[in-house]
Specification:
Strand content: 25-35%
Shape: globular
Radius of gyration: 16 Å
Order of helices and strands: HEEEEHEEE
Distance between the termini: 51 Å
Number of helices: 2
Structural class: alpha+beta
């Protein structure tokens, strides 16, 4: 019972510490590179500091193309992996958790 309680608390703590960073910006490049992005496109924004990012889904591909064609900014929310990464230190082909088009 004691170990079960410790496990539950540690799992809850891990979930509550998870947070997203927003590397928003204008889409500067879009590339079809399905081997790196689970069948999706990859993209760069002014906020991702030249790093390729993978959209979370096929619908995300459509959002990217719309934002690119209209020149709108997008919000790119990425798991900060426990505070170990920032928009300035993203690894190549990092998966976005979700994206949105800013008005």
């Amino acid at each position: 019972m004691k170990y079960s309680l410790i496990l539950i608390i540690s799992l809850f703590t891990g979930v509550t510490n998870a947070s997203d960073i927003n590397c928003q910006g204008k889409v500067t490049y879009v590339m079809d590179y399905p081997n790196q992005c689970n069948g999706n496109m990859s993209f760069k924004t002014t906020g991702s500091k030249g790093i390729w990012v993978c959209p979370p889904s096929d619908k995300g591909n459509s959002l990217l193309l719309t934002a690119f064609a209209t020149g709108k900014e997008i919000g790119v929310y990425i798991n900060d992996q426990g505070g170990t990464i920032t928009c300035e230190t993203l690894p190549q082909y990092v998966p976005a958790r979700y994206i949105l088009i800013n008005q």
